[in-house]
Amino acid sequence: MTDDVESTEKLETPPGDSREQREVEAVMVAALSEQLGVELAPRRVEFDDGVRVELDAASDDLSVLVEVWAHQGAAKSGQRNKVLTDAFKLAFVGRELGGTRRLILLLSDDQAARKFRGGWPAAALRQSGIEIVVVELDDETRDRVRAAQARQYR
After folding, report:
1. How is the chain split among helix, strand and coil, in percent rounded to 5?
2. CA dist., res. 70 & res. 56, Å (int)
3. What is the pLDDT, as a whole number, of residue 111?
4. Quick one: CA dihedral 15, 136, 23, 53, positive or negative?
5. Nearest-angstrom CA–CA distance, 100 and 54
6. Is the N or the C terminus of the chain less surrounded, counting Cβ atoms within 10 Å?
């Protein structure tokens, strides 16, 4: 050990790792895909001007565009801002593609969705044509997300 380090501890999973949330997002997308009867998968959209946008999920024909947030419990201010940034991305891609698109913010908890169902965020989402869809997770999956969130909390 070096002189300026008292001790170290190997961590199984880094505190900020979001592997569980990424895995749960895939479960959520599969549930939405089944619910809509449309195959959804992560997708990169590249526009003629070279701008590229990564979407959590979209249909092959880009008629359905989805951003996903696998979170349990009330959203904190920074988290709300992250979701609103995702919504802004959906609105941008939908507008750039033109035509009629279904823009979906996919969540997995009614409490987490509450911040986006009232006040100016709800009005802005409605005005932008973005809908909030909440899919139910089974208890085990919900507990995995909560455990990851507890580990990530700083």
Report:
1. 45, 20, 35
2. 11
3. 85
4. negative
5. 20
6. C
Range list of H helices, 37-118: 77-97, 110-113
Amino acid, res. 52: R
Instruction: Determine the pLDDT at residue 149.
Output: 65
Distance of alpha carbon 92 from its chain centroid, rounded? 16
In tens, the pLDDT along 45-85 reads 999 999 999 999 999 999 999 999 887 777 777 788 889 99
| pLDDT reading at 97 higher than 90 | yes
Question: Is 3.40.1350.10 the CATH classification of the domain at 19-152?
Answer: yes
The CA distances from residue 150 to 18, 147, 153, in Å, are 11, 5, 5
**Token pair listed for 63:** 């008629």
